[in-house]
Amino acid sequence: MSTYDEPETQLPTTEDGDVDEDAIADLLGDHVLDRETHGNAEAYVVRADAVQDVLSTLKDDAGFDHLSCVSAQEYDDRFESIYHLKQYEDPTNEVSVVVPTPRDEPVSETAEPVFRTADWHEREAYDLVGVQYDGHPNLERILLPDTWQGHPLGKDYNKDKPQIVTFEENKNPLEDHARGGEDSDTMFLNIGPHHPATHGVLHVETVLDGEQVADVNPDIGYLHRCEEQMAEKGTYRYQIMPYPDRWDYGPGGIINEWAYARTAEDLADIDVPEYAQVIRTMSAEMCRIACHLLATGTFCLDIYGDFTAIFMYAMRDREIVQNLLEDLTGQRMMFNYLRLGGVVWDIPEPREEYFEKCRDFLDDLPEKLDEYHDLISENEILQSRTVDTGHLDPEIAKNYGATGPVARGSGIDYDLRRDDPYGYYDELDWDVITEDGCDNYARLLVRMREIEESARIIEQCVDLLEDWPEDDREIQSNVPRTLKPDEGAETYRAVEGAKGELGIYIRSDGTEKPARFKIRSPAFSNLSALQEMSTGEYVPDLVATLGSLDVILGEVDR
Amino acid sequence: MIGILKSMATTMKHALDGETFTVEYPDEAPEVSPRFRGVHKFSQERCIWCRQCENVCPNDTIQIVTDKQRNGEQYNLHVGQCIYCRLCEEVCPVDAILLTENFEFTGDTKHDLVFNKEQLKNVPWYNDLDPLASREPDRGSWVGEGEGEVDYQ
Amino acid sequence: MATPTPLPDTIQRNIGVDGFGGELLSMFLAAFLIGNIMLAMTGVAGPWAKRKITAAFTDRIAVNRVGPFGLLIIVADAVRLLSKELIVPEGADRPAFDLAPIVLAGSAMLAFAVIPMGNGIQLADPETGLVFVFAIASIASLGLLMGGYASNNKYSLMGGLRAVAQNIAYEIPLVVTAASVVLFTGSLQLSEIVAIQQNTTLANVAGIRIPAWFAFVNPFAFVLFVVANLAEVGRNPFDTPEAPTEIVGGYQTEYSSVYFVLFYLGEFLHIFLGGAIIATLFLGGPAGPFLPGFVWFVIKIWAVFLFTQWCRSAVPRVRIDQLIEIGWKGMLVLSFANLVLTAAILGVTGL
């Protein structure tokens, strides 16, 4: 378990270990205006000027130390911000805080002083929906350009109106961001959006003092593709499923699809056959291996420079996984394999051949990982470059909502596959990997060891599938062709993506399309901790830290 | 120092074993899974112009024009815009539209990638692979009854 | 073994033109010859070989379409690079920006003048040849700084400054280690250094005479020199001045077309020059059994080149502060220790 001291809090739990909803209501006292029941947790409607009070009470007195997501939306009569809170100790203990604000004056108190991660989440809510947060340190647009007019997910937004940006405004959008001024000793440097090491179109505004980083501010949004809005335009049953593949194209496609499938199945109360769960589990772990291999390869590319061998070796092994996934799903990255209530195809015929291929891959994997260790993790220069750089304290990591290998590299024992089980994970024998180094090296090791664990899971799944009785191979449950969840049903569900907690919030309005579809991207939260990790370091370490966060910009910007 | 030497030994081992994992692509056709989803093939003879594919397409890639008697006139599909999700094949009750394993298509402009029904018909099979053979088992799931209210659009 | 006659004199004797005109002509011819040999090796074969070598390390195939073994890709590349638009950034410091690539490539070319390449191929053989080589080769860092400073780009500036810091830190160990060779040979003349290494016998093993190449006499100095040389030519693990994943391309970020070709050429020339210096000081220059001297010389240079590419595939880049630390606290101390020890041992044994 975690290595640091847990704050002593009295968790308001019932005898079964669940959240005691009434005790929390008592704890919050007068702040609670109303109570709602969401699919995942009890929701407390609170006053807009008491957000900090409520959240800090929940954080300090009830142990809800993980602000998972902030979903904002507009109703006909009000704006609403929902704070989805969890516990790092036990993420099944959830609570939601709903903050309604009137439409004519959508101002609510910021949560940023309580949870640092609210900084970016609230900026996104402001940017896309138009809720304003009183006391927020830097309430600017985050995904859209600064010159954008209107809030695209708001009800008043005119989609047909072209966005006109005058030349004056467009001349040098970076000029105003240049901090430091003429006389200071620091130099402002734009790393990205086009830079060999930003893993996509990320723009990092950096202030340098010599070679040292004095301040850094990641500027995201260059790859914003309105994924949430596209999902709101698609039908639950089929049209949304192809799009999650395009968030984390690491390729973590099946894990992303699973995030949507889990939420929608929860919302519409759909059962998934056990056989399909095993296939889902197996294919998701294949995706995780592919993602981690890519992360390892590109991280080393950042440290070694081009022409390094490790990148190509990682690509070579990822290729094998992709071939397996291609045989199974029909695509190498954009799988569209999961369906609500199951998966689209069974294991390809002849089954024995496919299992043979999987086993070949799994048998070769330990040898290849040993080679990786020879090549990278045992290399003294790599160690001197990565040990004690990009330091992220567990407490700070929690404050920033870091999850996945980034959190586990800081010793936070948090893995939704085990803590909030879904699929077939709780039936299988595997371990959650943590490292206490809190640095880039620890994160590298976590990823490399997680590949081994994923291989273990796949092996068990292959065994199970091989022996599965032939008359019980149900790949999809009976789901109506047009799916209309109950009006007003809302839920937030998350799965353990390759980068961390990938959550989806859906609110249904009784039609076949979601009324609000919000994606909680793990890389988004992880990236917001970059400033904390790399201030005071050298530029090469900033690049290495960015690489160790393993951001996929398609997932950050959505 | 030992770690560095180990690293160097590892790469040298790979240099000397002479194995390569890349292939000489145009000369050597890559192996494609039977389930692979490539460019569409359309059969006007089979099509009953029910427009289900047009409806299910997530990003409006398929455009169908019919006359007043609902006889089909045009069937246009933008293979450059398509996201190859295969929902059109899945929904088609008569297998009039299929995704071949063919992944090669080029065009000078994006407009060249708008295929009409003739072009779609002439899309070649890839290595004589019949996509339906490998994908049949899921057809039943599409017309599932479900427990809720059934709506066939 | 008498020092061979420098190449211009040989040419003059053969073409039979006397006087100042003949001397000038033969000098020009000799320089032309050597220049072309080196350019053919670096500019033409170098990039091709680099691709092939890197591909071998990373399990790929690399160029094989254009011509036999893809050799004609060099022509295609040359045409492509030379026909590209020459982009000069706004606010670039013009004379310096234009001069930098020439300084870089020129300095490396000049240094080849005094290297004995075997079979009498040597342009000049001054008594202070070794000093000349180091003096000329270090002009390159001036070229890098000029390029980095004049480009009006922050990445270039950082790259230029890194290059200078690195070259200063590693030049001293390089020269001091070379001095230990000079202690052994007692001469700064390069042909003399080669001759003494080859003519002294280190040992006889099973009837085969092992010459006293300095790499055999003092392997420690050899390793030091090779490492310092890696830093000098800016290759992994010391490629911080370029560091594409950190500062994009360092000093050459803003260079395009012909200027880029010159920069690229200059870098390759420097790797080969480094190889030539190592071959001359430690590996007996052009000496070797069976094959002609010049062939041995080329083989030795290519071995060093191969080594740099090998390092590139397997060794991570060190951080700039670690690099400076290794240079001043590690390499410098070790190289002086090596010098003092060599001197002491030579003094005691009276070699």
From TrEMBL, chain A:
* GO molecular function annotations of the record: NAD binding; NADH dehydrogenase (ubiquinone) activity; oxidoreductase activity, acting on NAD(P)H; quinone binding
EC number(s) on file: 1.6.5.11
PANTHER family this protein is in?
A: NADH DEHYDROGENASE [UBIQUINONE] IRON-SULFUR PROTEIN 2, MITOCHONDRIAL, NADH-UBIQUINONE OXIDOREDUCTASE 49 KDA SUBUNIT
Family recorded in the similarity comment: In the C-terminal section; belongs to the complex I 49 kDa subunit family.
Tell me where it mainly resides: membrane
Which top-level enzyme class is recorded in the Swiss-Prot or TrEMBL entry? oxidoreductase
Q: Where is this region: Disordered?
A: 1-20
Bilayer topology term: Peripheral membrane protein
Q: How does it assemble?
A: NDH-1 is composed of 13 different subunits. Subunits NuoB, CD, E, F, and G constitute the peripheral sector of the complex.
Subcellular locations according to the entry:
Cell membrane
Organism superkingdom? Archaea
User: What GO cellular component is one of the record's annotations?
Assistant: plasma membrane
Which reactions appear under catalytic activity for this entry? a quinone + NADH + 5 H(+)(in) = a quinol + NAD(+) + 4 H(+)(out)
From the record, give the transmembrane residue ranges. none
**Residues covered by the NADH-quinone oxidoreductase subunit D domain:** 308-558
Family matches, as InterPro entries: NADH_Q_OxRdtase_suD, NADH_quin_OxRdtase_su_C/D-like, NADH_UbQ_OxRdtase_30kDa_su, NDH1_su_D/H, NiFe-Hase_large
Query: What Pfam families does its record include?
Result: Complex1_30kDa (PF00329), Complex1_49kDa (PF00346)
Question: What are the protein's UniProt keywords?
Answer: Cell membrane, Membrane, Multifunctional enzyme, NAD, Oxidoreductase
This chain's protein is named NADH-quinone oxidoreductase subunit D
Which stretches make up the NADH:ubiquinone oxidoreductase 30kDa subunit domain?
Answer: 45-161
Instruction: Tell me what organism the protein belongs to.
Output: Halobacterium bonnevillei
UniProtKB/TrEMBL annotation, chain B:
Record-annotated 4Fe-4S ferredoxin-type domain positions: 38-67, 73-102
One GO term describing the cellular component: membrane
Q: Which residues form the signal peptide?
A: none
Q: Is 4Fe-4S tagged as a keyword?
A: yes
A Pfam cross-reference name: Fer4_7
An MF annotation (GO) of this entry: metal ion binding
Q: What Gene Ontology terms for biological process does this UniProt record contain?
A: aerobic respiration
Query: By its UniProt entry, which Gene3D superfamilies does this protein fall under?
Result: 3.30.70.3270
The keyword Iron appears for this protein:
yes
Task: Give UniProt keywords alphabetically.
Answer: 4Fe-4S, Iron, Iron-sulfur, Metal-binding, Repeat
Which PANTHER family did the record assign?
Answer: FORMATE HYDROGENLYASE SUBUNIT 6-RELATED, NADH DEHYDROGENASE UBIQUINONE IRON-SULFUR PROTEIN 8, MITOCHONDRIAL
Q: Which NCBIfam families match?
A: NuoI
Protein name in the entry: 4Fe-4S dicluster domain-containing protein
Q: Which organism is it from?
A: Halobacterium bonnevillei
TrEMBL record, chain C:
**MF annotations from Gene Ontology:** NADH dehydrogenase activity
InterPro entries given for it?
NADH_UbQ_OxRdtase_su1/FPO
In its keyword annotation, does this UniProt entry include GTP-binding? no
Which is a GO BP term held by this UniProt record? aerobic respiration
Provide the transmembrane region boundaries: 27-49, 61-79, 99-118, 130-150, 210-231, 258-283, 290-310, 330-349
Query: What Pfam families does this protein map onto?
Result: NADHdh (PF00146)
The domain of life for this entry's organism is: Archaea
Membrane disposition: Multi-pass membrane protein
The places in or outside the cell where this protein is found are: Membrane
GO CC terms of this entry: membrane
Q: Which UniProt keywords apply?
A: Membrane, Transmembrane, Transmembrane helix
Q: What HAMAP family has UniProt attached to this entry? A: NDH1_NuoH
| PANTHER family xrefs | NADH DEHYDROGENASE SUBUNIT 1 (PTHR11432), NADH-UBIQUINONE OXIDOREDUCTASE CHAIN 1 (PTHR11432:SF3)
* Name of this protein: NADH-quinone oxidoreductase subunit H
What is the species listed in this Swiss-Prot or TrEMBL entry? Halobacterium bonnevillei
